[in-house]
Design brief:
The chain has 16 helices and 26 strands. A hairpin with a 3-residue loop joins strand 7 and strand 8. The chain has 703 residues and is α+β, with helices and mostly antiparallel strands. The protein starts with 12 loop residues before the first helix and ends in an 8-residue tail after the last helix. A 7-stranded mixed β-sheet has the order 3-5-1-14-11-12-13, with helices on both faces. The chain has a 5-stranded mixed β-sheet with strand order 9-17-16-15-10, sandwiched between helices. It has a 5-stranded mixed β-sheet with strand order 18-19-24-25-26, with helices on both faces.
């Protein structure tokens, strides 16, 4: 048996369950101080006065930093990091002061005592589909065209035998990792060391170096253990800049932990998206036209676009298509990456609309999707490196017992409960980036592999050790892994389901090179061992002649209580085609975690932007409800054995995000099947469900 493909236990598991794994705020340096930010009380304006007298009088308070006395920084490419550099307030929650104290309690008391006065301007914070300042970006986040069109979608829609014209809305959603954003920074002579909770410490070092005017060799950024991120820790956040500012100002180590109530306005979020979908089809459900138009918002200071219309460009065969994004600049916190950005809200809308089309045509929703399977990627015309969506749908239907389903809505009941089942497809792109890695063979027969990967709870250490063991042709227990420090060989961040494929490629190459040298070598190794390095630049980022995506199919069974409006998911099933599964144990954990997050998107997670204050009403886990164990039903994750030689040496596609992509739509479609009511805005909370049931035409309970 090879190491890759075996269900190896996570290497850091014991440290985590025994509490010996240290996170960013748990580095107890001598003389350490603690700092707490003070957020702006207005949604738009300018600071005119900061009265810090009462704060400085608090026991234990050492300093109060504001835009008047904070060290000056070079301009950052990311304007959200320009903290305490200007009196301007671009959104509510923007940090306008930082209280540094001897203890977290003193810092909190000091922050509460700071009085901030602002000249307030009238903000514009509400997204509407007809906002007069909406524009179509030429490029979305510098990558995708803002609009793609082929054929004549409007004419084809008008001529279609069957037409579906529907709107969906996905509310703002928030990253709430278990470990809040935190950083501990200290100066050691001319060297800055930062322990931070980040999905990529190489990027953090580069940003800090540019802002503080320091060469890379004068900065070490460590992110050994990361308690989740879901995209919000993919780029540096204000906590790491504030910690570095405070240690520069005081000369002592400083820890900044962002309170959870500050996260929604500070670390990015999934922006609300408004979707209009027009699907035209022939009499048997083959698409003749697909129009997916998305309206979303960004902030005034940085453009970030939730590219929710992108999946429609690659998912189904449509000879006439338009995928378009409109963006409005508002006085709101800057949105950013959240797990499966673009695909999660975009596929929710598309897969819900496909369910509506299946009903309009009068065909099975699984068969409708199969009927629209493309021969090549519609957007690029490239052949797929592998695409086994049909197999996922067929296998999922078999495992789920889909053939026993009565297709009629509101056809099953158990007392006051209406029962229903739903399906949705999923896709996520394969993304691979250049990485470096090093490996050393030691005289004792062990191997040390070094790569600046970030293990954000996914088991990266374990899987990379498996890749190394096979390339070295050695038992897994002989391989040691070092990750999570910018002093290690540079590597891309953990994001976009690209981590293992990117890091694993470099690890594989370095280990294969070393194995070849060892095979030719005679005699013992030198005391320092024998080392090899690899850099996949030029290979990992080379243009591929293939369209590379992972695919999946989600099935859900729900029970809807007609008395309380409560929706309970009884079963969730996912079947995936995601390349080679490197570790079944960690893979299943990733799939199930993504599906659980999709369940939250469907039933519990949602945020409200307050029109009067420009702030999110649901700012903590008491108001923003993530699924708990009691909410998570019987979840099954399976996969198709997929051998794709066009990806990377390890053959993996990335699995961190595809689990969330289709889950919400499958649950929403199941709720419609149960009730006969189409709910077009998640989450499906009891108040919305009861209102929908009361407003719908009355039907007797089945049976």
């Amino acid at each position: 048996m090879t190491a890759v493909g075996a269900p190896a236990e996570r290497r850091e598991g014991r440290e985590k369950v025994t509490g010996t794994a240290r996170y960013a705020a748990e580095h107890h340096l001598p003389g350490r101080l603690f700092a707490r930010p003070v957020p702006a009380p207005v949604a738009r304006g300018r600071v005119t006065e900061v009265d810090d007298g009462a704060a400085l009088a608090q026991p234990g308070v050492v300093a109060v930093l504001t835009h008047r006395n904070a060290p000056r920084l070079a301009s950052a490419d990311d304007a959200t990091l320009a903290v305490l550099q200007s009196p301007e307030v671009p959104n509510r929650g923007w940090f306008v002061a930082l209280v540094v104290a001897e203890s977290p309690e003193a810092a909190r008391a000091g922050a509460a005592a700071v009085r901030v006065v602002c000249a307030e301007e009238k903000p514009d914070v509400m997204l509407t589909g007809t906002h007069p300042q909406a524009y179509v970006p030429e490029k979305i986040n510098g990558t995708f065209p803002g609009v793609r069109e082929w054929g004549h979608p409007d004419d084809a829609f008008a001529d279609a035998d069957v037409r579906v014209d529907v709107g969906y809305r996905v509310p703002p959603l928030h990253n709430h990792p278990m470990e809040p954003h935190a950083s501990t920074a200290h100066w050691d002579g001319e060297r800055l060391t930062v322990h931070t909770s980040s999905q990529g410490s190489t990027v953090v070092r580069a940003v800090l170096g540019a802002m503080f005017g320091l060469a890379d060799e004068r900065i070490t950024v460590v992110a050994e253990h990361v308690g989740g991120g879901f995209g919000s820790k993919g780029t540096p956040r204000p906590d790491v800049v504030l910690a570095a500012l405070a240690t520069w100002h005081t000369g002592r180590p400083v820890t900044v932990v962002l309170p959870r109530r500050m996260l929604p306005t500070t670390v990015g979020h999934r922006a609300s998206t408004l979707h209009r979908l027009r699907l035209g089809a022939d009499s048997v459900g083959r698409l003749t036209s697909l129009v997916h138009e998305v309206t979303t918002y960004t902030s005034r200071i940085k453009e970030f676009v939730e590219y929710a219309g992108i999946p429609s460009r690659v998912m189904y065969a449509a000879p006439n298509l338009r995928s378009l994004h409109r963006v409005v600049r508002l006085d709101v916190p800057t949105p950013s990456w959240m797990r499966a950005p673009g695909e999660a809200p975009g596929m929710y809308a598309l897969e819900s609309a496909m369910d509506e089309l299946a009903e309009a045509v009068g065909t099975d929703p699984v068969e409708l999707r199969i009927r629209n399977e493309p021969a090549t990627e519609p957007d690029s015309g490239k052949p797929f490196s592998s695409r086994h969506l049909v197999e996922c749908l067929r296998e999922g239907a078999r495992r789920f017992g889909w053939s026993d389903r009565d297709p009629r809505p509101r056809s099953r009941a158990a007392g006051p409960l209406l029962l229903g089942t739903g399906v949705a497809a999923a896709t996520y792109p394969v993304q691979v980036y250049p990485s470096r890695a090093a490996v050393r063979a030691l005289p004792d027969g062990s191997f040390l592999v070094e790569v600046n990967a970030a293990d954000i709870g996914t088991g990266a250490r374990t899987v990379l050790a498996q890749v190394a063991a096979d390339a070295l042709r050695t038992p897994l227990e002989r391989v040691r892994i070092r990750v999570g420090s910018s002093d290690l060989p540079a590597a891309p961040l953990a994001g976009g389901s690209s981590g293992t494929a990117s890091w694993g490629w470099a690890v594989h190459d370095a280990c294969a090179q070393l194995a070849a040298r060892l095979a030719e070598r005679q005699g013992p190794l030198p005391e320092e061992g024998l080392a090899e390095h690899a850099d996949t630049k030029g290979a990992a980022d080379a243009e591929s002649p293939f369209a590379r995506h992972a695919f999946g199919a989600h099935f859900a069974e729900v029970a809807v209580d007609t008395v309380t409006g409560e929706v309970r998911v009884r079963r969730l099933l996912g079947v995936y085609a995601a390349g080679r599964i490197l570790n079944p144990r960690t893979a299943r954990s990733q799939f199930v975690g993504g599906m659980t997050m999709g369940l939250g998107m469907a039933l519990t997670e949602g945020s409200t932007l307050d029109a009067a204050f420009g702030d999110f009403a649901e700012s903590d886990l008491a108001a923003y409800h993530v699924p708990a164990h009691a909410d998570v039903p019987d979840i099954e994750a399976h996969w198709i054995d997929e051998d794709d030689p066009h990806l990377n040496p390890v053959g993996g596609k990335g699995i961190g995000e595809i689990g969330i992509v289709g889950t919400a739509a499958a649950i929403g479609n199941a709720v419609h099947h149960a009730t006969g009511v189409r709910f077009r805005e998640p989450p499906l909370t009891p108040d919305r469900v009861l209102t929908g049931l009361l407003e719908a035409p009355q039907h007797p309970m089945p049976g």
